[in-house]
Amino acid sequence: MNYKPITNDDIVYFKQVVGETNVFVDDKIHEDYTHDEMTEYGKFTPEVVIKAHQTLEVSKIMKYCHDNYIPVTPRGAGTGLCGGCVPLLKGVVLSVAEMNKIIEIDEKTLVAVCEPGVLLMELAAEVNTHDLLYAPDPGEKSATIGGNVMTNAGGMRAVKYGVTRDYVRGMEVVLPNGEIIELGGKIAKNSSGYSIKDLMIGSEGTLGIVTKLYLKLLAKPKKMISLLIPFNDLKSCLEIVPSILRLPNQPTTLEFCEKEVIEDATEYLGKQFPNKDYNAYLIVSYSGNTKTDIEQMYEDTCQLCLDKGSIDVYISDTDERQESIWNARGAFLEAIKNSTTTMDECDVVVDIDKIYPFLLHVKGLAKTYQVRIRNFGHAGDGNLHCYVCKDDMNDERWKVVVKECMQSMYDKARELNGFTSGEHGIGHAKKEFLHEKLGDTQIELMRGIKKVFDPHNILNPLKVI
Ligand SMILES: Cc1cc2nc3c(=O)[nH]c(=O)nc-3n(C[C@H](O)[C@H](O)[C@H](O)COP(=O)(O)OP(=O)(O)OC[C@H]3O[C@@H](n4cnc5c(N)ncnc54)[C@H](O)[C@@H]3O)c2cc1C
Question: Of ligand 1's atoms, which has the minimum distance to the CA of residue 150?
Answer without folding.
Answer: 34
